[in-house]
Amino acid sequence: MTTALLSTAEELHARVRHGRRAVVMTMGALHEGHATLIRTARETAGPDGEVVVTVFVNPLQFGAGEDLDRYPRTLDADLKLAEQAGADAVFAPSVDEVYPGGEPQVRVSAGPMGERLEGASRPGHFDGMLTVVAKLLHLTRPDAALFGQKDAQQLALIRRMVRDLNFGVDIVAVPTVREEDGLALSSRNRYLSPDERRTALALSRALFAGRDRHAAQEALRARAREVPSTRARAEALSAIGESRAAADAHAVATAAPGGPAAVRAAARQVLDEAVRLDPPLRLDYLALVDPADFTEIGDDFTGEAVLAVAARVGTTRLIDNLPLTFGAAS
């Protein structure tokens, strides 16, 4: 197939549509993570539908001192990757096309959730992100839009905007794509030197450590539930030589149901060690939050949660996260 390169909304609107249109929004510098989004969009749109990839480096979501000027712009390579992944069109508008009157005076506000974590580190970032997503949804008029789970807070805010402001579009989340060593794919990974990349692996290692601690706790809790807490329980366990193991499991389950504190501690231990590496990791935040509002969860929390981390290595800022399920919902 030949992927069309479009630069104006007029060109996009002139295309004859058959079936569903699925859109993947990007800032370019496409990699395998984006290719996964595009392939998933192809499945979402169906054989008679259309996949549109937007490539637009949005100035509104870059703060003072951030990397707007050096953000990689690789449109020829992006077009090739999009075509190979199954896109029908790449919509690469200019800044004047998206913001014809200059910076917009009316913008979308991300609200309280947009001031936490990434929002606290990058004031105004989510307002700029939501504003351009809203504009691109209007310009591309999709039935579905796909976003990666690596940007978990962004995904949560887009879902909230679409719900709160009654956008008629399905938001589809696609799992994070990782390189073989565990590093989450990002356009900013290309900025890392070999030594910086080795340090950057601490982000994913910390998340995996938290996940493994959580899995071990959940396994112990499940084991403790298998035998009733009665006199017969102790006798039965003693008979099969597992009284100590069961007692330990029961203690863990009783002392820290769900174990958010232990998950945080396991992840932080990895990050604390990375601070002493050369070059060092400079931690921005480690958080275990409710994806509904990105507030920290308590030890009695049950349900879906997100373990998220952000840090700088050299001049490069990286983020990563993993979804976890606590308590009765797991």
TrEMBL record:
Superkingdom as given in the UniProt entry: Bacteria
A single MF term (Gene Ontology): pantoate-beta-alanine ligase activity
Positions annotated as active site in the UniProt record: H34
Binding site for (R)-pantoate: Q61, Q154
Keyword match Cytoplasm: yes
Subcellular location: Cytoplasm
Pathway where it operates: Cofactor biosynthesis; (R)-pantothenate biosynthesis; (R)-pantothenate from (R)-pantoate and beta-alanine: step 1/1
CDD domains registered for this protein in UniProt: PanC
Pfam families xrefs: Pantoate_ligase
Residues that coordinate or bind ATP: 27-34, 148-151, 177, 185-188
EC number: 6.3.2.1
Residues annotated as signal peptide: none
Sorted UniProt keywords: ATP-binding, Cytoplasm, Ligase, Nucleotide-binding, Pantothenate biosynthesis
InterPro entries: Pantoate_ligase (IPR003721), Pantoate_ligase_C (IPR042176), Rossmann-like_a/b/a_fold (IPR014729)
Catalytic reaction list: (R)-pantoate + beta-alanine + ATP = (R)-pantothenate + AMP + diphosphate + H(+)
Residues annotated for beta-alanine binding in this entry: Q61
Other facts noted in the record for this chain: The reaction proceeds by a bi uni uni bi ping pong mechanism.
Protein task: Catalyzes the condensation of pantoate with beta-alanine in an ATP-dependent reaction via a pantoyl-adenylate intermediate.
Quaternary structure note: Homodimer.
Database matches in HAMAP family: PanC (MF_00158)
Family (UniProt): Belongs to the pantothenate synthetase family.
Name this polypeptide is given: Pantothenate synthetase
